[in-house]
Amino acid sequence: MTHPAVEKLRALVRIPTVSDRDPARVDTAAFDSFLAEHERLFPRLYASLELTRVGPHGLLFLWSGASDARPLVLMAHLDVVPVDESAPWQHPPFSAEVNDGAVWGRGTLDDKGCVVAISEAVERLLEQGVTPAQDVWLSFGCDEEVSGTSAVEAVEELTRREVRPWFVLDEGGAVAGGAFPGIGRPVGAIGVSEKGTTTLVLQVEGRGGHASTPSRNGPTARLARAILRVDRHPMPSAVSDTTVELFRRLAPHAPLAMRPLMRNADRLRPALAKALVAAGPESAAMTRTTFATTTLSGSPAHNVIASTARAGINVRVMVGDSVAGVVAHLRRVIGDKSVRIEVVEEGEASPVSPVDDDAFRLLESTVAELFPDAVPAPYVMMAATDSRHFTRICERVYRFAPFRMSKAQREAIHSYDEHLGVDDFLAGIDWYRRLIERLT
Ligand SMILES: [Zn+2]
Known about the structure:
The chain contains 14 helices and 17 strands. The chain has helices spanning about 5-15, 30-40, 45-50, 110-125, 150-160, 220-230, 240-250, 260-265, 270-280, 280-285, 325-335, 360-370, 405-410, 420-435, and strands at about 50-55, 60-65, 65-75, 100, 100-105, 135-140, 165-175, 185-195, 195-205, 210, 290-295, 305, 310-315, 340-345, 375-380, 395-405, 420. Strands 1, 2, 3, 6, 7, 8, 15 and 16 form an eight-stranded mixed β-sheet that branches. The protein binds zinc ion.
């Protein structure tokens, strides 16, 4: 038996709430039992907060504060991605074993750690009879990993009730160790925007036919040429204002040789963009819209020439670019009218939330209080979160989970060996508690 809050996390990690784009493939019994268990573990929360159900299993709670002038929304999601059975998990993914001072299992980091830490922070404050200074909303989605609708429904409910959040906080960044080469201190990385996720399909049609009499430049060859052209002609790279601010804040903690470049990032944007692209795919992705060719389909048989060849291109749209601009770029670099470009999923980059702002300063100073060694800094997230839907009703949408995460832990998200340190989890509860206590 570890700390009671850790037992709550373990109980909820053991319930495999795996979401799926196909509702028929969702184990609704698992979600039902997750919700029942959540209610059993946080009785004060259910007794004192007003609950609205959103989507099939999403929860939207209102904790009425002394004022409703500057409402805060704390977000997390209770669904998880599936487990690859062949991956070498050191501990079974739904066992929630405690080992080496950590809870191991799918969802510990993404994102049940946040669900439980937020719930526990509220439960403890209720136990102490605390009323928050401002309304606090808790929005727990059930289908974040499959871009579902529960967060959209939460936004609709808030809109219906004419709630304009002061700020929204969702998963995203973390107290990230080893995030930047040469920087010894962890970075309290607070996402202020996220790239848009867009999916395109390139499609070429032709005659097809018998493989014994092929002609040149058929659909498959044209598609292959288009894919190579996309690969060879990335979108232009640039250093965003957010990245300039990130570097400015990290500069004092960087090796001496790197400091002038980082401190003067604003003036040195073109050189810096080049350096980031050269440094590898991760840092290159910070500077531009990216294209990844993912699905491929063509002929169904070895002796048949394809009459249709298709490739999926997963696009992550950078702040400053647009889906229309991406399509125009692709048309130009592919330079072949027979290649049809179809947008099957359209997601623009999210607006950038302010940094020179009271809400951001509250997050920053709460990071400084609980994680004094960390350097709080804004960044642009590469992945998507449910919080993007809230940009419709709120200009301050931040993405930060108050847990220390090593590089290995961050790599375990959506992969194997996902685990959250017990002490780090407990510190996260304190962080949410302090954030609510510090509302004025
Ligand atoms: Zn997540």
